[in-house]
Amino acid sequence: MREELNHTLKPEKAAFRKSLFTSLLAAGFIFLLMAIMAIGQTYQQKGNLLPPLLYTVFLSLLTFLMFRTGVVSRYRSIFFITYAISFCLVFIPQLLETRGSILVTESDVANLDVPFCHIVLPMVALPAILYKILIFPTKILAPVGFLPMLFLWLGATFTIGKGWCSWGCFYGGVDEFFSKLLRKAKLKPHKWDKRWRLVPYAMLILIVFWALIALEPVYCTWFCPWKAVTEFPEPNNTLTYFQTALFMTLFLGLVVLLPLFSKARTQCGLFCPFGAFQGLVGVINPYRIKIDKNLSNDCGRCRRVCPLFVMTDDTLAKCKVALACARCGRCVDECPNGAIQFSMIGYQKPGAMSAIGNPSGFISRANHWLRFHWREIFEPRTLFLITAITFGGIMGSGFFANALERLWHLVTHGSMLLK
Amino acid sequence: MSSGIFCLGYCAPVLFPYLHAKEKPDWKSRTWPLVIFALGRLTAYLIFGYFVGWMGAHISGGAPRIGLAVSFLLLSLLLLAYGLSLNLPRFETCRRFSRFSEAGFFPLLLGILTGLNVCPPFLLASERALQHGNPLSGAWLFLSFYFGTILYLLPFVFTQLLSRLERVRTLAQVVALGAGIVFSLMALSQLLTLL
Q1: B188 contacts on A by Cβ (under 8 Å)
Q2: Under a CB-based contact definition with an 8 Å cutoff, are residues A245 and A120 in contact?
Q3: How far apart are alpha carbons B49 and B37 in whole angstroms?
Q4: Under 8 Å CB-to-CB from A106, ≥6 apart: which residues?
């Protein structure tokens, strides 16, 4: 069946579908890793094993489908949206349990009780280096404090680079969710002025300098749309009412309405300064998206479907994607000729495998089988996908299991609060 | 000098879009606007230092902050107009402002308005000038403050080489609009906290 399907595809595209062995190996690896984590967590917290086990099965199934069908973006999207929704379903009830409110009070700030968020990282860097102060009211070593998030970010940067924005960020799935609701786009974002794509970089420059002079995380104070689904200071004067109105408007516009009508991730692609920052530092990561000009027929499909606006005529002419590419795999899936592929710095595609010398000889067939699967496993696409699924999977494990528990509690007890 | 980073923090969002939005062919065109901008800052410092010293202990707490918030507001309007003139050159008003922004006094104006800010070192210097209670010693204090911090602006002479790249020029044009919005928010927060 697989061979029949592959006959209708160009050879480059057909190579995206992995053999049953490789697909099972990938899914098995994810299953084993997640199962070990699930058992460990359940044993430590004396909780219920079923929710983390369900997550393990869910992630392993997605991994298998991703490898076996050769389609990345659809299954990644399912994971990413589930991950973001789980995060929201867990974060708010947890705040209600610990603080009694989602509003940040002055005592929370004074006690450094605000969870650290990765978006703050570009703002805290300069004041930390120059003045040895942390401008965000969080504890250094708390589980959601500065150092754990810093190391998490470092790990993400080395392993998946800008892929963080499509595989690891617990916010990105929210605007992706809204971008998937309508069947057809009412707006045509690929026709928007290319200057919009530079807004995240402008935002990054401005917040870095503004935070340096104000010595506070100004993006969180003024702009961050994610405060609408996490926490925010209690509005109690004209200034805080104005700030609340501003971030609510940004949430409604950039996370809900524009993604809904344009079918693109407008918050992530046209506003988020952390995305710009991650694009710049993410170049240290070896994985890339490569465009083969010889295979491309310039149909422009990749430009139309890219949810983060990284494909332009300029980048396509140079056979590159912009720094903001988050490796979501959409263009790779959509390119009819397989001209766009996951790649790696310094990777040279090996030539076609030679035919089996003696088809009936066991040694010769085994050797061919081994060489074939060795190639399938140690190619950039497989390595990147396994790394990204592992990273996102570990990040999302706690949220998904906890969200399931809370939903079950909602059904049985009428509340999502466990305490 | 230790407070120069704060000055860089205020000046960079103004200087980056102003100096990098258009290609500068030679060293003269790269250095001259920066010199005029620095002169603008010097003017603002001297005037402010003189007045603070003159007012001495009689100055009321809120008055200088309102003045500084207004200067932020003017700066934000200038940056917004500059950003719009660069991004929407087909509009007649933008074309007119573009001619205005090319005039020699434009960086002087930017320098004066950027010079008047409420960063902690500036407030500290104001406090010292107030204690002196003498216009000339106030101006002298701000003059030394100025020379201690000007060093941080010198790298902009070299960073302008980047304006050869079209992407940097476009980014500077977008930053001009963003900086306009940011400075207007800063002015707004200054004014609202005084209410």
Answers
A1: 239, 242
A2: no
A3: 18
A4: none
Tens digits of residue pLDDT in B13-71: 888 888 888 887 778 888 888 888 888 888 887 787 777 666 654 555 556 667 778 88
| Per-residue model confidence (pLDDT) at position A154 | 93
Q: What does residue A341 show for φ and ψ, rounded to 5 degrees?
A: -140, 155
Instruction: Identify which of B15, B7, B11, B24 has the alpha carbon closest to the alpha carbon of residue B176.
Output: B15
Residue type, position A196, single letter: W
Looking at CA atoms only, how far is residue B74 from chain A in angstroms?
18
Contacts of A79 (CB under 8 A, 6+ apart): A59, A62, A389, A392, A393, A396
Type and span of the H or E element at A389? helix A380-413
Dihedral in degrees, nearest 10, Cα atoms B175, B178, B180, B185: -150
ipTM score: 0.77
Instruction: Name the closest residue on chain A to residue B168, using Cα atoms.
Output: A198
Whether residue A287 is predicted with pLDDT greater than 70 in this model: the reply is: yes
Alpha-carbon span A278 to B153, nearest angstrom: 27
Residue B123 scores a pLDDT above 70: no
CB atoms within 10 A of CB A113: 17
Q: What is the mean pLDDT of residues B79-94?
A: 80
Judge if pTM exceeds 0.90: no
CA dihedral A350, A356, A357, A358 (to 10 degrees): 170
DSSP-assigned letter for residue A237: S
Q: Which pLDDT does position B122 carry in this prediction?
A: 67
Predicted confidence (pLDDT) per residue in A59-77, tens digit: 999 999 999 999 999 999 9
Distance (Å, whole) CA A239 – CA A125: 27
What does the pLDDT read at residue B55? 65
d(CA A35, CA A367) in angstroms, rounded, equals 33
How many Cβ atoms sit within 10 Å of the Cβ of residue B39?
A: 14
Q: Is A138 helix (H, G, I), strand (E, B) or coil?
A: strand
* Residue whose pair of structure tokens reads 């403050």 in the numeric block: B145
Q: Which of B1, B31, B195, B14 is nearest to B117 (CA)?
A: B14
Angle at the Cα of B131 from the Cα atoms of B126 and B134, rounded to 5 degrees:
90
Using alpha carbons only, what angle is made at residue A171 by residues A166 and A175, rounded to the nearest 5 degrees? 80
pLDDT surpasses 90 at A11 = no
Which residue of A196, A197, A198, A323 is the best one to mutate when testing the B interface, meaning the one whose CB has the most B CBs within 10 A? Answer: A198
Structure tokens belonging to residue A256: 């809900």
SS3 state of residue A233: strand
A residues 191..210 contacting B (CB < 8 A): 194-195, 198-199, 201-203, 205-206, 209-210
Q: What's the pLDDT at A260?
A: 96
Strands (E), B96-188: none
List chain A residues with CB under 8 Å of B169: none
Residues A19 and A2: their CA atoms lie apart, in Å, by: 9
Q: Which of A366, A332, A365, A346 is nearest to A15 (CA)?
A: A332
**CA A173 to CA A170: how far, in whole Å?**
7
Which of B1, B87, B88, B182 is best to mutate for the A interface (most A CBs within 10 A)?
B182
| C-alpha to C-alpha distance for A390 and A396, rounded to whole angstroms | 10
Token pair belonging to A296:
């491309």
Q: What is the dihedral of CA A296, A298, A304, A308, to 10 degrees?
A: 50
